[in-house]
């Protein structure tokens, strides 16, 4: 039975959405096509009607994940009295730590990207780093002598804190990592 073009596009979008969450949660290598298609409610055989390869899907899923996380961050900082503190306190939070499927692709996929030989994936993640640095530079302290340096330090601190807080088995240490880094990066300011 042939599906309509509209249904095919809906199916494709569903697969991309599921992949965007699964890849951030389990990593690229931890996301198999058969399980992914099953989670999307579709057959494994339908995958290659929608995508050229797993790499093709990964790029589309990471792009979708980036768009989703960017919208979340924009919503969190728009209208905040101190957008930098608001961004740091959201990014370095238990809420973000505990939801990798909805979180930032940098924290979830940095090591996968570093090991990847796919130039398109590396370029996509490089663009995301550049976007974050641009945002953080624009939000840097007015008193900063070097806003870009502050942006790089803030981004590295946020990502490092999130990765470490997810990696340690001790919940108290995980919370402490987030709290200390959030306080240090936001300089005690309220977001």
Overall average residue pLDDT: 93
Low-confidence stretches: none
SS strand fraction = under 5%
CATH fold label: Tetracycline Repressor, domain 2
CATH class: Mainly Alpha
In CATH terms, the superfamily is Tetracycline Repressor, domain 2
The number of helical elements comes to 10
Tell me, what's the shape?
elongated
Rg (CA only): 18 Å
Class computed from helices, strands and strand pairing = mainly alpha
- How many strand segments? 0
Give a quick account of the main beta sheet: strands, pairing sense, barrel closure.
none
Distance between the termini: 54 Å
Order of helices and strands: HHHHHHHHHH
| Overall tally of domains | 1
Helical residue percent? over 70%
Key features?
Tetracycline Repressor, domain 2; 10 helices; 72% helix
Helix and strand topology:
Elements: H1 5-26, H2 33-39, H3 47-50, H4 54-77, H5 83-91, H6 94-97, H7 105-115, H8 119-138, H9 147-167, H10 171-186
Structure summarized in a few sentences:
GO terms for molecular function: DNA binding. The protein has 191 residues and is mainly α. The chain has ten helices and no strands.
Verbal overview:
The structure is a single chain. This protein is mainly alpha-helical. It has helices spanning 5-26, 33-39, 47-50, 54-77, 83-91, 94-97, 105-115, 119-138, 147-167, 171-186. It has one domain (53-186): Tetracycline Repressor, domain 2 (Orthogonal Bundle), CATH 1.10.357. It is 72% helix and 0% strand. The chain is elongated and about 60 Å long.
